[in-house]
Amino acid sequence: MTELEKLRRDARDIFSAALLAVDPATAVHRFVQRHGETLVVADREYALPAFENIYVVGAGKASAAMAFALEEILAEKLTAGLINVKYGHVEPLKTIELIEAGHPVPDEAGLRGAQKIIRMVEQATARDLVLCLISGGGSALLPLPANGISLAEKQETTKQLLACGAAIDEINAVRKHISAVKGGQLARLVAPAKLVTLILSDVVGDPLDAIASGPTVPDSSTFADVHRILAEYSIGQTVPDSIREHVRSGWAGEKPETPKPGDTIFESTRNLIVANNSQAVVAARDKARSLGYNALILSSTMEGETRDVAGIHAALAQEVRGSGNPVPAPACLISGGETTVTLRGTGKGGRNQEFVLAAAAGIAGLDSAVIFSAGTDGTDGPTDAAGAVCDGDTIKRAQATGMQAREYLHANNAYPFFEKLNDLVLTGPTNTNVMDLRLVLLGEV
Q1: How many CB atoms lie within 10 A of CB 406?
Q2: Strand, helix or coil at 54?
Q3: Are residues 353 and 269 both part of a single domain?
Q4: Is residue 114 pLDDT above 90, yes or no?
Q5: What is the CA radius of gyration of the chain?
Q6: CA–CA separation, 378 and 437 (whole Å)
């Protein structure tokens, strides 16, 4: 095995260790245990005989694996359940119904599943317990527009918000107020039953109100904010009529606001993060150290334009090789988070593949250097790849096949580039989702 082959193998092993650390079923078992007739969730005990019914609901790419763990824990105490998951992200469930639905674009299957979830939780009483499972993709997988608004009208509004340059918190404020479940409204529907939400975070910094648009979390935004946002970005008159009328009536106090901090419904609600990107990068660091690398975590909250972040990682690889800083070789630099791709072309790829393609030029010719980036959910953009891997010879190998990396990067066309080099990272659905993991490995020379 050559040094490059070893580095590539080690990168995949480190990524696998990170995935194992954020396995949804394992995470649920860490937080939820059953001791006879007592259910222990984190530091709180629930006497199971006190509940007439126990329901499990939720949505997200990791929800099937989380639900599988709860079926194991609750066994005969589980009354019923229903979760919406992305197509293919499934587990063999016995009691909990599983509905496969569209992501990132919501579809009618997701809408039907959300409607069934609402019917289930609305029947819960103060003598019942509802366990809600939320993970990345939950916002698209739990699509239930407010009364009088169609799914297509909500999608059109979101499209206009994305195109007008609104900030993500502004987009979320609008989404919550044109939904029947987001922004704490699922918690309102569950009340007066006890509600415990277990969350796999796919958002930088783990803000509870942003993960899947916070269906069981207080919402601080208002209809007045939504009215201002639509006016400020000049789309108040271009969004569908149903949206405009819904916002107007909410602003006028004719419709109820989303539940706010301090609302009594949250007295019986708990929201617990059971896994996040920080856990993945720490596990990656520990695995790298066990393999003999000087491992350093750069950040678990890395954001920014993908190409810029790639340039920084490539520069750090050059620095390790040239000066032994920030750690000497053999080195493994680790970062997590989620970057953003500005589309310039019409090619096929995702942010992780684009990251590696941009980084490849920065380490061209560098001895014993590998850069790896992949999404922990096993999907990168609209592709079947989790990400890609490159080394100091990637640019030269590409040129030998007639490919110019710069042209593929300009076209946002990383997938066919790495497909031809056999350098895609293909994992299939991992049934977890805590954003991305990036690795820079340098061997000794």
Answers
A1: 12
A2: strand
A3: no
A4: yes
A5: 23
A6: 11
Number of compact structural domains in the chain: 2
Both tokens assigned to 290? 């066990």
CB 436 within 8 A of CB 387: yes
Residues 287 and 214 both lie in one domain: no
Output the pTM of the full model. Answer: 0.90
Return all residues near 386 (Cβ < 8 A) that are at least 6 apart.
352, 374, 375, 376, 377, 378, 379, 380, 425, 426, 427, 430
Tell me: do 270 and 341 sit in the same domain.
no
Q: Are residues 333 and 266 in the same domain?
A: no
Q: Are 39 and 78 contacting, i.e. CB atoms less than 8 angstroms apart? A: no
Show the DSSP H helices in 233-298 as ranges. Answer: 241-251, 277-290
Residue 83 dihedral angles phi and psi, to the nearest 5°: -135, 150
In a domain, 215, yes or no: yes
State phi, psi for 26 to the nearest 5 degrees. -60, -40
- Mean pLDDT of all residues in 155-159: 88
Q: 399-405 — which CB contacts under 8 Å span 24+ positions? A: 405/357, 405/360, 405/361
Q: Which of 316, 384, 317, 306 is nearest to 352 (CA)?
A: 306
Q: What is the pLDDT of residue 156?
A: 92
Domain interval for residue 355: 3-16+278-442
Are the C-beta atoms of 129 and 193 separated by less than 8 Å? yes
Mean pLDDT, rounded, for 149-159: 92
Q: Token pair of 342, please? A: 């500005």
Q: What mean pLDDT value characterizes the chain?
A: 96
Q: What is the DSSP letter of 76?
A: G
3 state SS of 374: strand
Average pLDDT over residues 301-329: 97
* Residue 370 β-bridge partners: 391, 441
User: Do residues 115 and 263 both lie within one domain?
Assistant: yes
Contact 200, 277 (CB under 8 A): no
CATH number at residue 66: 3.40.50.10180
